[in-house]
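Shipment paperwork, digital attachment
Item: protein structure file
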Amino acid sequence: MAQIILENIEKRFGDVIAVKDFNLVIEDQEFVVFLGPSGCGKTTTLRIIAGLEHPEQGNILIDGQRVNDFRPADRDIAFVFQFYALYPHLRVYDNIAFPLKAVKIAKSDIDSRVRKVADILQITDMLDRKPSVLSGGEMQRVALARAMVRQPKAYLLDEPMANLDAKLRIDTRAEIKRLQHEIGATTVFVTHDQIEAMSLADRIAVMHQGVLQQIGTPHEVYNKPQSLFVAGFMGSPTMNLLEAELYSHQGTTTLELNHTNVHLDLTLEQQARIDKNTSKNSCVFGIRPEHIAAAKEPIGRKISADVHLIEPLGSVNILDLLIGTHADTQEPILLRVRTHPTFKVEVGEKIWLDFDAEQMHLFDKNTEQAIL
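Attachment content:
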């Protein structure tokens, strides 16, 4: 397998910068997921690694060798597309064997490798079928088998589960993770689905508008977002993000959520962690729904709110709570809270909140970077 290094990669399409100053080291046998919304540059970056796109500047290194001028076929990388791209007139066996026949591998070796990978992916009984009689999940496994049979240095997967239904996505996701651990393959996986990213990745590279926003483990990206974009993109429901002001008085720093009666005194440790050089008076406060406690009696900081909407999801309830109103637009300021389904409330009912002090986030309003 292989280490992949991207150095200062930039790619333009006309006046549009698709990838900007992208730097990343993907270690040997690591599973890295490129995550972001449509148009963020993740697939373009994957295609640059494969050699299907050529960057305007920067270097691509595979096992320490610069491969910018190598043809895709010479990079020894397998690419699995979003659309399976199977040959409809060929049997499953021949679809899997095709890349080996193209480089004139001995027939006995081809047969051995095809049957081995078919056994791993549990498609041995389908080898004599045509793609037209296969389900979406079966075709996806054939596409994976065709990539695996080559035994390349790395695997690149471009939203391979986008066309599967929800149940099949879960099953295929588990299968891909098992396979990656079993064969120890360096793998780069593109998706816009954060659940796929969280469940599959050793590390997640979050992208937005061609820029790498953050690289880290699923735990780091979810719990320690470095930018406002990452905070708002990760999680379902997403993090509560509210405009706020910071005030200091007699050694105490207080956070006030704009247009509400919510005031939070920061701990000494939190005050020490705020960068003194940041223009931080106006900021954005963030907290995830699961880090807010709700009760029918006053608790903690004794923050009150009115129930605006209830979303019962079976295992949890999501409550939209009214904590204020914008002075100029009169639009409600809502806070989303995750509660146990046994916590029964009605729309319009007054309840009480408290925030987990260790799970509060602050972002600079101008730079959109984390300051707490």
